[in-house]
Specification:
heterotetramer, A mainly alpha, B mainly alpha, C alpha/beta, D alpha/beta, B: mainly alpha, ABC transporter involved in vitamin B12 uptake, BtuC, 3-stranded mixed sheet, two-stranded antiparallel ribbon, C: alpha/beta, 6-stranded mixed sheet, about 40% helix, binds adenosine-5'-triphosphate, binds magnesium ion
């Protein structure tokens, strides 16, 4: 794995994903059309039926696109660029996802299955929010401190898992699943405490983080696009460097690939378990921090949404490689942003996006299926990452 | 005794933990409290034979009594351990004693419907047991099954809708397994035929089912609720005589058909796994597929079959959520129990009874926290809700320790690959 | 405020969506009642990663004239948007509609004194109970939920006081708002079912679930065990669930989200949008009991009268629900 | 029963593993097949046994064409095979393993093991095996595991028995017994295909010898041919079988082990009161039957064993209780018994495998920064030095043959400054060419004044390399004898026989 970051990325490698995406959109479209009463009413006249179906799915997807990338309707005189608002939304959504995805990917490379990104995300968000609204510090410093606080708490929450596994052998899958629930309930509790209540209000919404702790906007006040996405990209490069260019990453990958040989070579597997989970936790924690400091600003019980689990999907979709994870997250960010608009414009239930996401991952993970559908015997494909099951 | 084996060290850690806990319980629950108030245990749910109706006892003395039992238990356990004998029974007694000691303390001045407490625990673990059985089925033959959640949800959806459309719980029950099987068919197809990473697959299938059910729920079940989502529910069937057995009767033998089928399923899976030709082959395929292949066993066909069956089990378990409990389907009503089931399977070391034990532990802990938060505790509600999850972590790290999955679990089998 | 011929009205719903059998549903239903006056549409926050700001932005971009935020989580997004777009009118359910303490011209808050109807429900429950034990539980421990529970407990206590009876309330203790019985989410039907079972085993024969759609589970248990009846929450449960359950709904505590939404839309259509905070009370019909439906016969007339009277008393302020 | 292969061809991608191979085995004939690593022997046999599908070629049993697509076809045709990598389920009992695939059930549907137990007993008695049907296979020594495989073949009365490197893991005694058994079977009419790298064995039992090189049959030979002739036929060049061990000065004690005891995870004592010294410039060989504690003893040398009592001193510093890394850094080179499992990471590149144990030291790393350029250059050198054959150091190690894999392990362990070399079964499964190389390296290290602790079950190897030989039996050292000991004496010692 000592290829430079970009060599693992070629246009040719994008053909399959593109086809996989098209395929998924097709099935999603079928679902939209066939569950649309206006379409079903025309079932008796084939032609009209197909027209209606096409229209139904077409409109939904047009809205999806407009909500995700570019919507001319938003352009105002002398402000054509406003049409790119949706793109900004997509990137805003992608930033935390990239970071959380990297968390899962890194742990995976070290032979650990981190289902706990959700909980680590929550603690990261909690810490960042607290530092963000409670303390007063100079601009910049405040931001850094808040982000670090989130990273630290996330890394503690994650490192705990590694430590438990190293010490007692408790399986990380069990522990992380349980810790996710614990983190959620802890969040619900702390939001009710006076420290986290807005003075004079009693609903569980933490005060907004102060301006001094917010990630700077990148494209002016018309867009929510903030430095979070840059942080995410930077961290992706960092993770790539850590995994492929450092002795620590070497240990991670070695222990992840073959514990016995690693032990024999003097690599301390307990060290790998603990530190890998700590780093993974830190990344997920940072994701939470970026979410709170970048676009969410106020801590709520739903702050983590489904990031921690989407993170697993994008990491696996990205074959546990940094670049792949970034690309996968961008795709998911766009789908997420588009979905809201799609529902607003065409009343298509937002959940269809889940179906599309699932199908995309499925087809990309199964190149042979796609190839056989599109008759592409020749196309060479990188083998997926091998699952080692539970024994790591 | 120097140089203990890892297993022994773990067991010793267990014994010491129990001993210390018992002592703490005796002091903390038995001696310190201001005393005075009574705790009342209720032992009757229905018109079963009444052994004792209620048992009223001083909270303090009860705590002492049970903590005492726990201490005895841990001493016995230690002696057993020295004698290198199994400490299962002793530890069971100790844990029970500890629990009762704690309960008597926590419920001072309160009424604890003991039978109901246990019955509730059982009910809460029903989906977990079905789920973990599905896990065991497929993972024993070497296919990692993270799709349990999806299989449960699919089963719940299908059985709910069908029961509603046909006004028949029977049809609901009959359809559920096939809904689960549809999901596990995808799992089998992609994992075995296209040898795709099974962990990715499991996750994605869950997402897929979430998406599909949410979508259809909004598009069909809400608008046309009266026809699509108003299913009937199963009534409990009392097993003649048995259900009257004091305490146990109403817990185990006054349940819906789903629960009875669960009993049979667990026993059947255990027996077939360890006593039959099918079981031998299944385990062989999960441990050393090449060896199985070299004696003429069709590895992938067997795996395919088992994964499908696993899906049917989980799917049937899903029916518990709808026809087994509330009738109508609710959005994402499995609420992550498929993952708890997954944990229970690992916790139970891929053995049917182990998984059942883990599921019961979780279900019971969950219901205990429910009952205690009703009778009233000073502990904030969110921390009460955490209890079962914390308990699981303690159990896993304190007593279970390192677990070993079937050797070939998660590894697709292709002939001629490197042996 | 803009005077569109037929104004474009958009609801920003919380993750529950129009089918949550709860406040989102009521809001949408309310909007439907005035379809003729405005063309109404809605968006739902993405349950996977709710991005309320994004949600509201998408409506602003969608050129809505009136945007109504439903669910307190959307508050801050609505506030921000209101400040940023003075030409668009906003309303926010479950929020007084103040931006850092001050009212602004294009934002109207819609709040509800649900503790009042909770109080009535508690009184009714206590009066109806044969065992003298009534129970309530919530989805998660948040004010919109606990306000109801608090009112319920106090109402039951009030009944006990004036009738010199001892009434036991399970699941919520006004003195200790950190504890109480909660499911932990709004989707675990079988947990809600088990909680109801546990209540019944503690002797409760009236249950007041404040957990949106989970009230279905309680109703199922009640129907199966015949040991309890259920008081629905937010909307009239009687019409929402299978007819098989009609026999278990003692009543429903209404939260007039729909009415308030309809009211705001009417004003908008008539070009009379204003920012006077709307508080739904028993007095203005913003909250209230739905009706006894099938159990009307079973509830003693005296009790029904007492409840009606108490309602008036609270409305006129002679009795306080706090 | 006779077996004939005609024009068997099999390629894996570009590589032709079998190139139209013809082969005929008569009834009751022991037919040896010789060839280097990767020559194509296992592939050929896997084809005969139905585990691989030939691209072309035909298989005749008793001169009638046989379709063999599945192992079940082979079994049905009376072909049995003992695989190079055993085909036993470790967590099953012997009986379960043997009944697998031929299950009989009782009337109540449960498995019927009684019949198979009886069969096992019958066969064991006939051939004087000591096998308990209810032992877990994972607890059995390799030698016994192999017996299980043979018993299985015999129970399902194989007329043609394929043995793929059966002696690679056996001791002299076990080997001789196995050879006797083979004779016995042959006399009763069973045809045997015997794959091995050990010419001595071939000369003892084989009736006929076929030599394969790079997938082609390059000739047949008679057992009378000399070992040198056979060797050069296999490798295609002249090879030295017995390296000359020049006399050399012996230095001070480098390694000294005192009263060592090792327990396994189940608390069973595996090694007890073991004491010995190894001096600089000396090769001490630990000989012994597989499963007498050598593996654990070897592992203990770098603290890979968990439950150890006693003392292991390298120079003046104690090893026991320290970390593995510490032991390695102290100057121990460790060549593990199983290169595939403990020695190499199959998904890692050759270069990465070359720095497994010292990636965080200079020159490879500065701080935590790995320097890929240096890693690569160093890899080029090391591999050239140790004559590893490969396309690129970035290729995954799994693309190398066993022999080359082993050279990579040696390259890694020996190209850093060490005082002691611990090598377990360094030539297991290797062909003569590779063995020659490994042996020369080990002696070279010795002559450079390093201490060598050699664990081997190969008599010839022990005698060829050792200055002194310690024999292990049942976890204890039975005796330490000079290398002038005769193979016979050594064999007896290994069998636990100490004569006054
Ligand atoms: N499944 C496979 N896929 C690709 N190549 C393979 C496969 N199996 C074997 N080969 C290649 O075929 C060649 C022959 O392998 P084979 O195992 O038959 O050699 P061998 O004679 O048994 O070697 P050894 O004496 O070490 O056992 C080797 O070069 C190997 O690289
Ligand atoms: N699936 C495969 N793909 C590529 N090469 C393979 C495959 N299977 C076996 N080989 C190679 O075939 C060659 C011979 O196979 P084999 O397993 O016999 O190795 P070996 O030389 O005998 O080493 P060992 O004795 O440790 O097995 C080795 O290089 C091995 O790596
Ligand atoms: Mg071979
Ligand atoms: Mg070999």
């Amino acid at each position: 794995m000592r290829k430079p970051l970009l060599r693992s990325f070629s246009l040719r490698a994008l053909i399959l994903p593109a086809l996989a995406f098209a395929l998924s959109m097709f099935f999603g479209g079928l679902l939209i059309a066939l569950s649309d009463s206006n379409v079903l009413h025309k079932a008796s006249h084939p032609i009209a039926f197909i027209k209606a179906a096409g229209a139904s799915a077409g409109n939904a997807y047009l809205a999806l696109f407009q909500g995700a990338i570019f919507d001319p309707g938003l352009a105002k005189p002398h402000q054509w660029y406003l049409a790119f608002g949706p793109l900004s939304e997509s990137l805003v959504g992608a930033a935390p996802l990239i970071l959380a995805g990297l968390s899962v990917a890194l742990a995976f490379r070290a032979g650990l299955f981190n289902i706990g990104a959700q909980g680590q995300f929550i603690f990261g968000a909690m810490a960042a929010s607290y530092v963000g609204f409670h303390f007063h510090m100079p601009i910049g410093i405040h931001l850094v401190v808040a982000a670090l606080a989130g990273t630290l708490l996330g890394s503690i929450w994650g490192g705990m898992v590694g430590l438990l596994k190293a010490r007692t052998g408790a399986h990380e899958v069990i522990v992380t699943i349980m810790l996710n629930y614990i983190a959620l309930y802890f969040l619900q509790w702390i939001l009710g405490t006076t420290t986290f209540l807005i003075p004079g209000r009693n609903d569980p919404i933490a005060p907004p983080v102060l301006q001094s702790a917010r990630l700077p906007l990148l494209a002016g006040s018309n867009f929510r696009l903030n430095a979070g996405i840059l942080v995410a990209f930077a961290v992706a490069v960092f993770v790539w460097w850590l995994l492929n260019r450092t002795t620590i990453g070497f240990k991670f990958r070695a222990a992840g690939a073959n514990t016995f040989a690693s032990k024999t070579a003097g690599i301390s597997v307990p060290f790998v378990m603990t530190s890998a989970m700590a780093v993974a936790g830190a990344l997920a924690g940072l994701a939470g921090a970026v979410h709170v400091l970048g676009d969410n600003f106020q801590l709520t019980s739903g702050v983590a949404g489904n990031f921690g689990f989407d993170a697993i999907t994008v990491a696996l979709l990205g074959r546990a490689k940094p670049l792949g994870t970034v690309l996968a997250s961008l795709l998911f960010g766009a789908l997420g942003a588009g979905a809201a608009a799609m529902q607003a414009k065409t009343n298509t239930p937002i959940d269809i996006v889940l179906v599309i996401q699932a199908l995309v991952v499925l087809f990309i993970a199964a190149p042979d299926v796609v190839k056989s559908i599109f008759r592409l015997k020749s196309l060479k494909t990188a083998g997926g990452l091998v699952s080692k099951g539970w024994n790591g | 005794m120097k140089n203990l084996s890892a297993a022994e060290l773990r067991r010793r850690r267990g014994v010491y933990t129990m001993a210390i806990l018992s002592l703490l319980a005796f002091i903390g629950f038995g001696l310190i409290p201001a005393s005075g108030r009574n705790v009342t245990y209720g032992f009757i749910l229905d018109k079963e034979w009444i052994l004792i109706h209620q048992w009223v006892i001083g909270a303090k003395s009860a705590s002492q009594l049970f903590a005492g039992i726990a201490m005895l238990g841990s001493i016995v356990a230690y002696m057993q351990f020295r004698a290198r004998k199994t400490i299962r029974v002793a530890s069971a007694i100790t844990s029970a004693g500890l629990l009762m000691s704690f309960l008597s303390w926590a419920a001072a001045g309160k009424f604890i419907p003991f039978t109901g407490l246990l019955q509730g625990g059982l009910l809460l673990s029903v989906p977990l047991i079905f789920g973990s059985m599905a896990g065991v089925m497929s993972e024993r033959s070497g296919v990692v099954n993270i799709a349990i959640e999806g299989e449960l949800l699919a089963g719940a959806f299908a059985s709910g809708v069908i029961a509603s459309l046909t006004h028949s719980t029977t049809w609901g029950l009959l359809i559920a397994p096939f809904a689960g099987a549809m999901i596990s068919f995808l799992l089998a197809l992609f994992a075995i035929k296209y040898s795709i990473d099974q962990i990715i697959l499991g996750f994605v299938l869950n997402v897929l089912v979430y998406g599909l059910t949410d979508f259809l729920y909004k598009r069909l079940l809400i608008p046309y609720q009266s026809t699509w989502n108003s299913g009937p529910t199963l009534q409990p069937l009392k097993i003649p005589v048995l259900w009257k057995v004091p305490i146990l009767g109403p817990i185990f033998f006054d349940q819906t058909i789903i629960v009875y089928i669960m009993y049979l399923a667990v026993i059947f899976i255990h027996l077939s796994l360890f006593k039959t030709k099918w079981g031998l082959r299944t385990r062989a395929v999960g441990e050393h597929p090449t060896a199985a292949d070299s004696v003429g066993i069709n590895v992938n066909r067997l795996r395919f079959k088992n994964v499908i069956i696993a899906g049917m089990i989980a799917g049937f378990g899903g029916a518990y959520f709808t026809v087994g409990a509330v009738g109508s389907f609710g959005k994402e009503m499995t609420a992550g129990e498929g993952f708890i089931a997954l944990a229970a399977m690992i916790f139970g070391r891929w053995s049917p009874w182990g998984a059942v034990g883990a599921s019961l532990l979780f279900g019971f802990a969950d219901n205990l926290q429910g009952v205690l938060s009703i009778t009233g505790t000073p502990i904030p509600s969110q921390f009460m809700l955490m209890a079962p999850y914390i308990a699981t972590i303690i159990a896993v790290s304190g007593f279970v320790g390192r677990v070993r999955a079937p050797a070939a679990d998660g590894a697709p089998y292709k002939r001629g690959g490197n042996a | 405020a803009s005077q569109a011929a037929t104004p474009k009205v958009c609801l920003a719903l919380d993750t529950g969506g129009i089918d949550d059998h709860s406040f989102n549903a009521s809001a949408w239903a309310g909007a439907q009642t005035v379809k003729s006056l405005a063309n109404v549409s809605y968006v739902v926050a993405d349950a996977n990663n709710p991005d309320y700001t994004g949600e509201v932005n998408s409506l602003v971009n969608n050129k809505c004239n009136l945007i109504i935020g439903v669910g307190f989580l959307i508050t801050s997004a609505i506030d921000a948007a209101a400040v940023k777009n003075p030409t668009i009118n906003f309303a926010q359910v479950d929020d007084p509609g103040l931006v850092n303490g001050k009212a602004i011209a294009n934002l109207r808050g819609l709040t509800f004194a649900t503790n009042q109807v909770g109080f009535l429900s508690g009184y009714l429950a206590a009066g109806y109970s044969k065992t003298g034990t009534v129970a309530t539980y919530g989805g998660i421990n948040i004010p919109p939920v606990t306000i109801y529970m608090d009112g319920f407990a106090k109402g039951a206590a009030y009944y006990a006081k004036i009738n010199k009876k001892t009434i036991k309330v399970l699941g919520w203790d006004p003195a200790d708002p950190k504890t109480g019985v909660f499911v932990g989410d709004f989707s675990s039907q079988n947990k809600a079912l088990q909680i109801t079972k546990n209540f019944e085993q503690q002797g409760a024969d009236v249950v007041f679930p404040v957990a949106g759609g989970l009230e279905l589970a309680s109703a199922q248990e009640a129907a199966a065990s015949k040991k309890s009846v259920v008081i629905g929450v937010d909307s009239d449960a009687y019409g929402l669930y299978p007819t098989a359950l009609h026999g278990v709904w003692l009543n429903s505590a209404l939260k007039g989200v729909g009415a308030s939404v309809a009211a705001v839309i009417k004003d908008q259509a008539a070009g009379k949008f204003n920012n006077a905070a709307y508080v739904g009370t028993l007095a203005n019909g913003g909250t209230g009991l739905a009706g006894y439906h099938d159990l009307a016969a079973k509830v003693p007339g005296s009790l029904q009268n007492a409840v009606r009277a108490l309602g008036k008393a609270i409305a006129t302020g002679t009795v306080s629900a706090n | 029963m006779s077996l004939e292969l005609r024009g068997i061809t099999k390629s894996f991608g570009a590589l032709v593993a079998n190139d139209s191979i013809d082969l005929r085995v008569e009834r009751g004939e022991i037919h040896a097949i010789l060839g280097e690593n990767g020559a194509g022997k296992s592939t050929l046999m896997n084809i005969v046994y139905g585990l691989l599908k030939a691209d072309a070629g035909e298989i005749y049993v008793n001169d009638t064409l046989q379709e063999i697509n599945e192992p079940s076809d082979a079994l049905a045709a009376g072909i049995g095979m003992v695989h190079q990598h055993f085909m036993l389920v470790p967590v099953f009992t012997v009986a379960e393993n043997i009944i697998l695939g031929h299950e009989k059930s009782k009337r109540n549907g449960t498995l019927d093991l009684d019949q198979i137990r009886a069969d096992i007993k019958r066969v064991s008695d006939e051939f004087g095996f000591e096998v308990n049907p209810d032992d877990l296979v994972e607890n059995l020594p390799v030698g016994v595991q192999q017996r299980v495989e043979i018993i299985r073949a015999l129970i399902y009365d194989a007329q043609v028995l394929i043995l793929d490197e059966p002696t690679a893991v056996l001791t002299p005694q076990e080997t001789d017994e196995l050879l006797k058994i083979m004779q016995k079977l042959a006399d009763k009419g069973t045809s045997i295909i015997f794959i091995t790298h050990k010419l001595r064995e071939v000369k003892i039992v084989a009736d006929k010898i076929t030599i394969i090189r790079r997938g082609k049959v390059v000739g047949t030979a008679q057992p009378s041919a000399s070992q040198e002739e056979l060797a050069s036929l296999m490798v295609g060049r002249h090879v030295v079988l017995n390296p000359d061990k020049a006399a050399h000065p012996i230095g001070e004690v480098v390694l000294s082990v005192k009263d060592l005891a090792i327990k396994d995870h189940f608390g069973r004592t595996i090694v007890k009161n073991v004491s010995f010294d190894v001096k600089a410039g000396e090769v001490l060989a630990i000989a012994g039957v597989q499963g007498n504690g050598q593996s654990e003893l070897a592992q203990a040398m770098i603290n890979l064993e968990e439950f150890v009592e006693g003392s292991i001193k390298l120079g003046d510093d104690e090893i026991v209780g320290k970390s593995v890394k510490r032991a390695l850094d102290d100057g121990i080179a460790f060549v593990p018994e199983s290169r595939e499992l403990d020695g190499l990471i199959s998904t890692f590149s050759i270069a990465e495998n070359l720095i497994l144990d010292r990636h965080d030291g200079a020159p490879y790393a500065k701080g935590i920064n790995l320097n890929p350029k240096v890693v690569k250059e160093q890899a080029q050198e090391d591999t050239k030095l140790f004559d590893v054959r490969f396309q690129s150091v970035d290729d995954p190690i799994s693309s190398l043959s066993g022999g080359n894999k082993q050279k990579v392990v040696l390259a890694r362990e020996l190209s850093r400054p060490v005082r002691l070399i611990v090598a377990s079964q360094p030539t297991r499964g290797l062909d003569v060419g590779s063995i020659e190389f490994v042996h020369e390296r080990i002696l070279a290290e010795r002559d450079m004044g390093r201490a060598v602790l050699l664990f081997s079950t190969e008599l010839d190897e022990v005698l060829a390399l050792a200055d002194r030989v310690a024999v292990m039996y049942r976890g204890e050292i039975l005796a330490i004898v000079p290398s002038t000991v005769t193979p016979q004496e050594l064999g007896l010692l290994m069998a636990g026989v100490v004569h006054a």
